[in-house]
Amino acid sequence: MYNKHSSGENPVSGKSNIRVRYIAVTGILSAAAFALQLIEIPLPMLIPSFIKFDFSDLPALIGAFSLGPVCGIIIQFIKNLLHASISTTSFVGELSNFLLGSVFVGSAGLIYKFRKTKKGAAAASLIGALLMAVAALPLNYFIVYPFYYNFMPEKTILAAYQSIIPGMKSIFQSLICFNVPFTFAKGVADALITFLIYKRISPLLKGKANNQNKR
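RESULT FIELD:
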């Protein structure tokens, strides 16, 4: 009897391979995100020294574009779970990073899922970065900074902002003038690097490179 699957790939095996690749890619990108989170770049002329720049959202954005928004959020979760084991912020810093990063890659990945073009990717990244920047204001003002006040007086934190721009009158004003644009710029930087490398690594992430080699 002729087997209709004899000349092609077994659909069950195909689905299993997709799941294995999804898990493997998610794990690799999560490890990369964690490693990048450890490389913090201070920008003392632009923002207080206790806020540092890193590219840890980059692997999550790549994952969101290649495997969907849920993958990007999972990468953010694993990254911050690993970082929490060596952090001194009592999980507050990791919670903030996870929530903001999830807004970024989740929204960008969702938009790109329905508009897989270069313009769609650009729009998705910019919208994601903008939403992350907007979310940074209430998250920092109501959750993150009140926690840090237990270790550093509010006046001391405000003074750090005033050392850059003396006209800052409050933490809220400082967050608007510093943290919001900083967060947006961070998202845009991640997006620009993604544009530069995504096309080259996309076949590997999606498992298409092996198929092309077999031909």
